[in-house]
Amino acid sequence: MTRAILPANDQTTIASGDREQWLTRYYVSRAAFSAIWVAAALTVGRQSPALAVGLLILYPAWDAAANLVDAARNGGLANNRSQAVNVIVSAVTTAAVIVALTMSMNWVLGVFGLWAIFSGLLQLATAVRRWKTDGGQWAMVLSGGQSAVAGAFFIAQARMPEPPSIANIAGYAGLGAFYFLVSAVWRSVTQMRRKRA
């Protein structure tokens, strides 16, 4: 059986197309997960402390896994340093949340605040690196910047005497879902226009 060999430039185009589709699907999956997480946090998470605990641990763990998979699909962790660091930061945050849950929700919110700052800045760095090669990165830059600002706000809230709840974090997750969805839609529309041209 004879296998057709494509010219190098055609192989590059196919690889680039696969990469574009992957990144769009990745952003959709990130948006969908965050939206589902927010819905769960604001419903069952407010009614069941056990489920709230599970959701609080799951959120940074998912971020670590998502960054790991995305980096692997785009040349590996060695070629995606900001995501490699983000995997570590999110994994450490997952462990820190588990410890903080044994103390108080103020501690949990403080941990989420630190994580939002670091992961936001790392997401921003990833978006800046991808700016020239991938569309929709302006939304990721905004998302990363606002995540860092939200993190500072969380830390300030954590110092207040009133105990926070999972609802405090749900707003932050909802904003993240919005930006991932905007980026995915922007990329999809751009890809459709390119095909029609």
How are helices and strands ordered from N to C? HHHHHHH
Envelope shape: globular
Largest sheet: number of strands, sense, barrel closure: none
Write down the overall mean pLDDT.
89
Instruction: Give the tally of β-strands.
Output: 0
The poorly predicted ranges are: 1-14
Assess the beta-strand content as a share of residues. under 5%
How many individual helices? 7
Q: Whole-Å distance between the termini?
A: 36 Å
Radius of gyration: 19 Å
Structural class by helix and strand composition: mainly alpha
Helical coverage, percent range: over 70%
Walk me through this protein's architecture.
With 197 residues, the protein is mostly helical. It has 7 helices and no strands.
